[in-house]
Amino acid sequence: MLKQKFVTGLLGLTLVVAPTALLASADMTLNERMDAKAELIEAVGSKAKDVQVMNDMIFSFGELGFQEFETSAYLTRILNDNGFSIETGISGIPTSWMATWGEGEPVIALGSDIDGIPKASQKPGVAYHDPVIEGAPGHGEGHNSGQVVNIVAAIAVKEYMEKNGLKGTIKIWPGVAEEQLGTKAYYVRDGYFKDVDAVLFSHVSNAFSTSWGAGRGNGLVSVQYDFFGESAHSAGSPWRGRSALDAAELMSVGMNYRREHLRLSQRTHSIVVDGGDQPNVVPPKASIWYFFRETDYPHIKALWEVGDKMAEGAALMTNTTWESTVLGSAWPQHMNKAIAENAYSNIKLIGMPNWSDDDITLAKALQKEIGVEPTGLKTEIEVLSDPIDPKKNMGGGSDDIGDVSWQVPTITLRYPANIPNLPGHNWSNSVAMATPIAHKGVLAGAKVQALNLFDLLTSDALIDAAWDYYKDVQTKDEKYIPLLSAEDTPAIHLNEQIMATYKERMKKFYYDPSKFDTYLEQLGITYPTVKE
Fold it and tell me: Which residues have C-beta within 8 Å of that of residue 205, sequence separation ≥ 6?
């Protein structure tokens, strides 16, 4: 790893900074840069109340992918009030947008996801399952927090740029429907990153970290298979029917038998979307939805082809027909080394939040409730490790930030706003996300992101190093081939019915910061609430 230098800044802080070769500038000495960073840290710290209000407000919306109307309206209103121009509905997605401020180069784009999880409604600060509304969606991954990190950081840097006459352009955009891997590949296809010099992405975590290289998680293609048969009376004349549900079930059986002979790194999972209407009618239509995950493009394509063969076989066995629709996709991620190393120096500068006894009590009580060791909250930042050996990559989750990372040098900042050892996509992952744990973690993340943004805006050498890695290492032997076709369109219908079922009831619980200091106060929750 490159050597680091320790400098004392304007506020007397001991700052751990990236190598001077990357941050040297013709018009800014290293001491001046460190003084600027100290000023930005103080500026973000002064916005702690904004962090809490924004975080809690988005948490209270709890919207699912493609249906984030309240969330997007709220965020774009804040950005507009702070001088950003807003292009809404990008890539034909009603809840998507691109916010822009500034002029000239470099152009730095900040992104984070905004969607929630089905059936994840949960009262914050309560260390056992206690939904705000039973069965409703909620932020069971913590996507209510990432845009807060980015927007607070961007506004602080914008104010510094205005004060000091710095040029450059800041863009902010949302990961709509990330849980469906539904939009970022469309942003890429439609050219929204073609003039961007670097991308800073943020994602909630229980630790402070970033990474570089490939091998963390899988890419995927999301495919819905629709089968078509013929209805008939299930008892009176079943021989006259051709069951589309039989085809969907046989496809599932076939994929499950084939699973034994697939690579260990694959992740294949499905749900039945449409299984018919009632038992006494042979289902003339049925649908099953698959995620095919693998570690690289060739293996994603091969796994997808296996799915198509299973669909064809199931249709032949049931005398039905089939067709498929791509609902989303994600390329395997490859994060930029130069930007990650610089960001890691900023993470070390800021360090972990100071957790209170109440924070630790909530964490340990929740961990005990879900049956894992009650270790509490992390107190040390993660190490910046080398990429995973491709031969040892056993796969995992996905994020369509991978598509963006193959267009422009990109990193993900993971900030400590949640509790360790939770299952993910679960009510328990909502518990901390409108509490002091999230507020402290998001504020720390915003400080780091402000420094990351500042460094990229003011160091040509850092930008050059990022592109050198992108061209000479990342894309030297591997090229991006979209999983989307030119005819594919965003699946903006997803989650419409769920939100239609719950939204009116959820509105009664939207956070009102004009009446309540925190969302915990509005809900009447004593922090922390744990089982006796």
Answer: 414, 415, 416, 417, 418
Helices (H), 384-507: 401-405, 436-458, 460-469, 496-507
Residues 74, 54: Cα–Cα separation, whole Å: 9
Residue 240: Cβ-neighbour burial (10 angstroms; 0-12, 13-18, 19+): exposed
**397: Cβ contacts below 8 Å, ≥ 6 apart:** 217, 218, 424
Whether 433 contacts 139, CB under 8 Å: yes
The model's pLDDT over 121-167, given as tens digits with 9 standing for 90+, comes to 999 999 999 999 999 999 999 999 999 999 999 999 999 999 999 99
Q: Identify the structural domains of the chain with CATH numbers, from first to last.
A: 31-216+332-523 (3.40.630.10), 219-329 (3.30.70.360)
Predicted TM-score (pTM) of this structure:
0.94
Residue 189 — φ and ψ, nearest 5°? Answer: -60, -35
- Asked whether the bond before 528 is cis by omega within 30 degrees of 0, the reply is yes
Integer Cα distance of 519 and 149 in angstroms: 18
Q: What is the pLDDT of residues 363-412, one digit of tens each?
A: 999 999 999 999 999 999 999 988 888 778 888 889 999 999 999 999 99
| Chain position carrying tokens 């130069």 | 338
Q: What is the DSSP letter of 473?
A: I
Token pair of 36 as six digits: 């600027």
